[in-house]
Amino acid sequence: MVHFLHPLLCPRTFVLPDAQEDARGRSVLQEEASPCSLFSICLDVLIASLEQWCSKRSDGTLCLPEHWCLPCEIADQFLERMASQGKVTDRTVSIFQGKQTNLKLINIQRAKLSPSAFTKAFCHHKLVEVDAASVDSELPASDIIHALQSNAWIQKNLQCLRLDSTSVPQNSRLQALGHFTGLHTLSVANVSFWNEDLVSISQLPKLENLDISNTLVTNISALLTCKDQLRSLTMHYLKCLTMTSPQILAVFRQLTCLLHLDISDHRQLRSDLAFHLLRQKDILPNLVSLDISGGTDITDEAVESFLQQRPEMQFVGLLSTDAGYSNFFMEKQGLKVAGGANMSQISEALSQYRNRSCFVKEALYRLFTETLSLRVVLPATLKLVAIGMRSHPLDLPVQFTASACVLNLTRENLAKGMPVRLLSEVICLLFKAMKNFPYYQQLQKNCLLSLTSSRILTDVPFDRFNAAKLAMRWVCRRENPKMQTMAVSITSILALKLLPEEMEQLQEELIMTIKELLTIVRQKTAEKVDDVTLLFTLKALWNLTDESPLACKYFIENEGLAVIIQVLETFSMSVIQVKVLGLLHVTIQNWPSSQCKMSALVSYRSFKSFSPLLGNFSQPEVQLWALWAMHHVCSKNPSKYCKLLVEEGGLQLVCDIQEHGQANAQVRQMAASILENFRMHFTSLPETPTAPVPSLT
């Protein structure tokens, strides 16, 4: 954590966010680098062990201990955190029945509940805010409304209701919303919401904020009923409108209290409503926020003129338009712009449009092009990318473009400046994307590339077991050599992070991976290609077999020893020899030599390559392996290998090692075993070697 916040400990090849120029970035950096609050940790512990704390009713639902009592400040956040973790079900939500909890604000986004469970858990509370956006279709909007309406207090005092993306049974209407007389905020975006429903809610006496985006409304004239109170109107992608632009503008002209107007659209529809609005001078005098993203024929000049007539403007949405590129938008103080002209506008777009996949995709594409050669750490931007990914898990364009942005934002040393918790969240989202789109190769490649960061693989907490499983499967797919090499490298590092029992759970993947790795080594050896793929593969084999008897078994059963010996005889590079010898030393340790059938697998044409290994006193394990290999073959075939050892000067080296002061006890003992083997088979030592005796130094 200190590494992220202390300027002297940060690598010099990247720049951390400046507190003044990038206040949001600095804030996110400090927030994400700080530990979670004790309150949040306690809630997570309670949620994780809910079954242990609770008793069960006769119907199997959970019940809090009798002496527990959760005030609204705790109960509201407890429920919201359960929903965010996908833990709100008919069985668990029953803990909010009765009087032990006091709820005011309920957030059950994306939860899967039955109408009866919803009613029993929530409708006896004095609720002032309900967010049921994107709940499962098992709980339609009409049933939510009916349940809430059953409580007279809620019907009178509910202030905020969000039903975005909820289902509505065919031929059903939501006119009952007009009975919630206390409502000041209503959102029904992406819902089957009709003209008659709009007529009903427009008569609500306190309605100030309304979102009817992507509904079935064809005529907005009913809004004139609430013209003296409506402060915010969002009608993004209102594709069913049959009114002409002049007719719509005539309604807007009477909404004199309106502060926020969103008429953004999908660019493909080529709506000209924004084009005509910008040319009006006597309309919406109190407006401070205007969103016209996706509008056609929008120019800098037209937007500038509109804003200059309204100096109090604080926000304008211009993404997917041709506007936002003049100096006016860069220099005007106090004006936020959601657009695509620069990083500031792109970040604002990602923040404003997190729930609109069409704009998230566009903003991510602009972000990708802006960050291709990035050298500045942007934690706030990475967090916005994560929010976009989390909001649209099944949208391929969003996930693919986001994965490319993650790669740009964390490449090379940039990952070192990112908070660990933020990186952890992003990596988990990448794995979800890989799981949801297993056959989209470029997405898979982006995710694997992000994982090649040593910072992420070693320091960041994430599900390494499933990560290793995915990487191993990619090792065995031969569709793309570069991706296979990446997967081999990732597997190599992750193998060291897995517990022995986790390796045992990967039996299927493990045997396939070892077979494929040995195939790669055979191919590289036959072609005499000592490239990075060979090095990664040898390292992966070494790490997979380390402390894993099961992996060693698969390695030996697939003729791994013979393959590795061939590598030793083919390549003289020390970096390759070290990996090979490490692999063999590990294999021998973890899989007893009596089970290896070494006599059928190992043979040498020469011991010359062993000479530098015997003199390596800084790595006794290397000496030990070389001596063990000599001892093994000399014991199995003394007439051949003892003679070869003497002829090449190897015997003299063994004698020297036994007497060398720097050799450790195990090495000297193995050297003594070789000499004893000679005495057993020869009454006297063979003739003087014909080859010069190499020096141990």
Describe the structure.
The chain is mainly alpha-helical and 697 residues long. It is 51% helix and 5% strand. It has 34 helices and 12 strands. A 10-stranded parallel β-sheet has the order 3-4-5-6-7-8-9-10-11-12. Strand 1 (55-56) and strand 2 (62-63) form a beta hairpin. The longest helix has 21 residues, at 507-527. The radius of gyration is 35 Å and the shape is elongated. The chain starts with a helix and ends in a 16-residue tail after the last helix. This is Protein zyg-11 homolog A isoform X2. InterPro entries: ARM-like, ARM-type_fold, LRR_dom_sf, ZER1-like_C, Zyg-11_UBL_adapter. Pfam families: ZER1-like_2nd.
How is this structure best summarized?
With 697 residues, the chain is mainly alpha-helical. It has 34 helices and 12 strands. The longest helix is centred in the C-terminal third of the chain and has 21 residues, at 507-527.
Which range best describes the helical content: under 10%, 10-25%, 25-40%, 40-55%, 55-70% or over 70%?
Answer: 40-55%
Q: Roughly what is the average pLDDT, rounded to an integer?
A: 87
Q: What is the count of β-strands?
A: 12
Uncertain residue ranges: 1-20, 592-601, 687-691
Number of helices: 34
Family: Belongs to the zyg-11 family.
Domain Protein zer-1 homolog-like C-terminal: 388-584
Protein name: Protein zyg-11 homolog A isoform X2
Pfam family, one: ZER1-like_2nd
